[in-house]
Structure formats: structure tokens, C-alpha cells
Amino acid sequence: MILSMIDLTKIIIFSLLGLILGSFINAWVWRLSKQIDSEGEPKKLTAKQKKELSIVTARSMCPNCKHELAVLDLIPIFSWLFLGGKCRYCKKPISKQYPTVELTTAILFGLSTYFWIFNYNWQYVAFATWLVCLVGLVALAVYDIKFMLLPDRIMYIMYGIAGFGLVVQFAIGRPLADIKNVVISVLICGGIFWLLYQVSKGKWIGGGDVKLGFLLGLLIATPMLSFLMLFLASFLATIVAIPLLVSKKIKRNAHIPFGPFLIASTIITVLYGQYLLDWYTNLIVVGTS
Questions:
Q1: Structural domain boundaries enclosing 210
Q2: Distance between alpha carbon 82 and the CA centroid of its chain, in Å?
Q3: Best CA proximity match to 150, nearest among 23, 272, 32
Q4: What is the pLDDT of residues 214-250, one digit of tens each?
Q5: Cα Dmax for the chain
């Protein structure tokens, strides 16, 4: 596919937006980790602490020395490289998580812009909804990897955004027949996990994964793509877990956060899932002809 200058410009602009929002994600995850405990419950904080940890009003600071950061310290990726991965003030190392999340979010925004189809007005709303929710998905993945938790505070915000986005889409022309697809998709993604959670009494899968499943069903909104997402998540988790088990880096009873695999497979499914289904369908047709 040959890109026009307009398309290339759009990809660059949205990639830069993703770069900036990747920096926001890092700050969001760090501040939230100071506000809730390992169970996701709010910590008892003073008024001063709440003000310092506010993602809306508080100034950005070094997570080590708490020094307020200047503008030159906040340029995504480039500040980290320029400073040699260390804080300008306390000289302590800054985690590679920061540039990694920023770059990842930029790439995801660029890919979303490249792959998204804009045939109808409601698809522009779907695109905007997806980008906002993508910020939340990356934040959830980072939080789950670091703290083995999928915070409700992020999840509930995304429920509201995804739900509102769908309402607007249907209001401006999305076929009403798709409502059935959305409902079935939610039941597939969340219902299967809810059933596993109930049967195992929480031993096989966590409650956070169940909530995430229902949310991902809203975003995918297509039954076949929901099944594809679940398959991809299991596949990704398997190819990551087996080498770790063989190398004895983890034990058989070790807990591995499943949220990042669900999120990664959702991103693949939303952006490229239909291509995969079409490829598989053609493969079957050719193979049986």
C-alpha cells in the first residue's frame, strides 16, 4: 500500500500524539501506584499527598528525589536519552520503562491511524474512542506487569468512554443491527472469564481479568473477532510461559499477569483481526477446493 503525503502526515501527527500520551501514561501509573494498595484499595493520604499525586493538577516530578521537572526534562524519549537515563537532579537511574512506554504508545497510535478504515462518519468516532481507550489499555498493561493488578480506577474510566463512544456511533449512523454483535462480543470476552472465575473460585483467573474481558468485548464489538482475541491471548501467553518454565525462571505454580496478553491480543485483533480472519477463510477455501 502506497501512502499519500496526507496519510503519512496523519500517521506522523498521531504518532507524536501517542509519544506525548505515553509520557502521561508513565506519570499516571506511578501516581496511581502511590494512591492505591496491592489490592486496589485507596490508601490513606493527607491532603498534601493527594495534591502532589494528582494527575490533573500536580507538576511532574522525579520518582526518586521528587524534584519538579523542567520542560527540558519532559520531552518524551529525547530527555531520557539526553540525560543518559538519569535524573538531572539526583543522578539516580530512570527506568527504561519510561522511553519504552512512550515509544510503544507512539507506534500503536501510528499503526491505528494506518490500519483504521474511514468509510462512514461513525467510524471517525470509533477511531477517537479507540485512541482514548488505547491510552487506558497501555496503562493497564504496564500496571499489571509491574504490580500484578488491573486497577478499577482505570477500568471504570474506560467503561465510560467505550460505552459513550458506542452510543454516539449508533446515534450518528452505525447500523442498529450491530448492537446484537456488541452484546454477543461482551458475553464472549467477559462471560467466558466470569465462568472460569466462578468455577475455580478465583484460582484460575482473577476478578480483574473478568472486568477487563467485558471491557475488551465492548471495544472489539464483533463475535468472531472476540474468539480470535481469546485465541491470540492464550497463544501469546503460552509462547512466553513455556521458555520461562523450561529455563526455570518461573515455577509451575507462578502467577503470570494475563492482562497484558489480553490487551496485546485485543490491539492485534482490532487493528489486524479482520485481515487474519480473511486469510484463514481463504486458506480453508483453497485447501478444500
A1: 120-289
A2: 28
A3: 32
A4: 999 999 999 999 999 999 999 999 999 888 888 877 7
A5: 71
Q: What's the pTM?
A: 0.92
Instruction: Indicate whether 139 and 65 sit together in one domain.
Output: no
Q: Which residues pair with 68 in a beta bridge?
A: 61
Asked if 265 and 142 sit in the same domain, the reply is yes
Q: Using the 3D structure, point to which of 69, 98, 115 is the last residue of a domain.
A: 115
- Please list the ranges in the chain whose pLDDT falls under 70: 1-2, 286-289
| Whether 26 and 110 share a structural domain | yes
How far is C-alpha 237 from the chain's CA centre? Answer: 16
The verdict on 107 and 163 lying in the same domain is no
CA atoms within 13 Å, Cβ hemisphere of 167: 6
Domain count, the chain: 2
CA dist 226 and 216 (Å) reads 8
